[in-house]
UniProtKB/TrEMBL annotation:
A Pfam family hit: MR_MLE_N
Active site: 163, 266
The protein's enzyme class: isomerase
Necessary cofactors: Mg(2+)
Gene3D superfamilies per UniProt: Enolase-like C-terminal domain, Enolase-like, N-terminal domain
Keyword Ubl conjugation carried by entry: no
Keyword Magnesium assigned: yes
Organism per entry: Oceanimonas baumannii
Official protein name in the record: Dipeptide epimerase
Amino acid sequence: MTIKKITVYGIRLPLKQPFKIAYDTYEDIESILVKVESASGKVGWGEAVVDQHVSGETWQSARQIITRELAPLLIGKPVDSIGYFHRVAETRIRHNPSAKAALDIALHDLLARQCHVPLYSLLGGRHHTRIELPCVISMLDPEEMARQAQDACKRGYSSIKIKLGDAPELDIERIAKVREAMKPDVKLRVDANQGWSAKQALQVIRQAAPYRVDWFEQPVSIENLEALARITGSTDALIMADEPIHGVRDMLEVIRLNAADLVNIKLMKSGGLHAARTMAELGLAADIPCQIGSMVESSVATLAGAHLAMAHCNIVANDMVGPAMISDDVAVMPGNETHIELSDNPGLGVEVDDAKVQSLSVFEDRID
């Protein structure tokens, strides 16, 4: 069975409230959905959510790469052309991982639907029963972050992740206030999004010791993996790498340098599920647990990550909170705000609402 048509939709996903991290503030999310259709009428959906600070892509650049460079490679090809796609895509154009992820996810969804199996079956089979989600709190004043943390505990969250990185002294106060507001058995995780220098990171980590932080995510710049390695080697606290780790080669470099204790794998950085699964396997071999992260994606890319997280024993955490932050999504997520429960429905396991996609669309392109 071959691929007949690909449709590309540029949509704006409205957020329930602005999302502030160390390097930007988001009022809404610019997403690209791709719909890959086979000659038999089967459909697979994928998504690209770009972050120009991380991958160098923009909404419009990803659109052009998908429509002009990547999607035409798949017309007329078999629906199981995942490996082929990545080989020719890497030859065709370097980098652009979010654009590649959109088509990678759609191909996986389409193939799983063609085989009448849930996507996690193609990725190794169900390992976890369900996926517990964290509450992610935007970078705000300490009192407001504490209030939101307390509310999250009341709503049943088992872990809370807070965004930091604009001022070390204020960040320490935020950590203290949030921990004091939380239930003792709820886990606390910190993400600086590259906001600190190496010395500032070590200062914050030392002063945060009484507050039982599970791990500190990406304390320093994307450009300085050696600094991350120095921090990891200088503290007993667990350090997670995120923004510098885009694909398999970066994962190998983390292992070589002992640069982190954990790695945050994001489909939008790795180019999709194909490389992400390999990265999780490398982590398993090197005793580096992994997390599936998010660029604040809709239910489409979130579910792709959830299927990988469900299937892999080395994926021990996630921050796939996009659907909980979005006020108008394109599909109904299984589970609730605190967890995801995947069914045995084929593919991603949900049906994308075509009418909703059309209503949120800013542009639409067709390749056939």
